[in-house]
Amino acid sequence: MTPGRSDCTGGVSDDLREVLLTLSPAEFEGFARDLKVLRQHCAKSNTQAIVDAVHERATTVMVAAVDDRRAA
């Protein structure tokens, strides 16, 4: 068991991954405020709000094609 965690998982999958975010105090305040807004507008959880926001942002990014010959 990871220190600081309850052994009561409440039906949560054992196949979870963790992401550590290191934020400045100002970034943290904005992040917490934004999460609150997302939760007030039907986000199921903070985690789901973050995953959805990252996914939405990623769909707008154009990634250049990779030339397989040059990548090898």
How would you explain this protein's 3D organization?
The protein is mainly α. The chain is built from 3 helices and no strands. The radius of gyration is 17 Å and the shape is extended.
Instruction: Give the ordered list of helices and strands.
Output: HHH
The main β sheet shows up as: none
Number of strands: 0
Which parts are unreliable, with pLDDT below 50 for 5 consecutive residues or more?
1-9
Instruction: Estimate percent helicity.
Output: 40-55%
Oligomer: single chain
Helix-and-strand structural type: mainly alpha
User: Taking all residues together, what is the mean pLDDT?
Assistant: 82
Q: Strand percentage, roughly? A: under 5%
General shape = extended
Question: Taking Cα atoms only, what radius of gyration do you get, to the nearest Å?
Answer: 17 Å
Number of helices: 3
Question: What is the distance, rounded to the nearest whole angstrom, between the alpha carbons of the first and last residues?
Answer: 41 Å
